[in-house]
Specification:
The protein is mainly α. It has one domain. It is 68% helix and 5% strand. It is built from three helices and two strands. It has a two-stranded antiparallel sheet. It is elongated. The termini are far apart. 4% of the residues are buried.
């Protein structure tokens, strides 16, 4: 299971920082939802919305990069 999560968060051979941050933020949202439901501590709407935008932005950028055309980065001659 840990290997599957590592593959999900990687982009080729290395871990994608955008995916890791979005995944960790999703976990924070999930934990805060359960804390909000089952305890007296309440999560503010502003905090939840800002965390949600981090996840949407991280996953959205990663998704767009998959479908964007690849450009050849050539070294500039001196």
């Amino acid at each position: 299971m840990l290997q599957n999560i590592k593959e999900m968060l990687s982009d080729g051979n290395t871990l994608s920082s955008k995916r890791v941050i979005a995944f960790l933020t999703f976990l924070v949202i999930a934990v805060s939802y359960f804390v909000d439901q089952f305890t007296e501590f309440k999560i503010t709407k502003d905090l939840f919305d800002s965390l949600m935008w981090i996840v949407i932005g991280g996953m959205g950028i990663t998704g767009v990069e998959k479908f964007a055309p690849k450009t050849n980065q050539q070294e500039i001659p001196k």
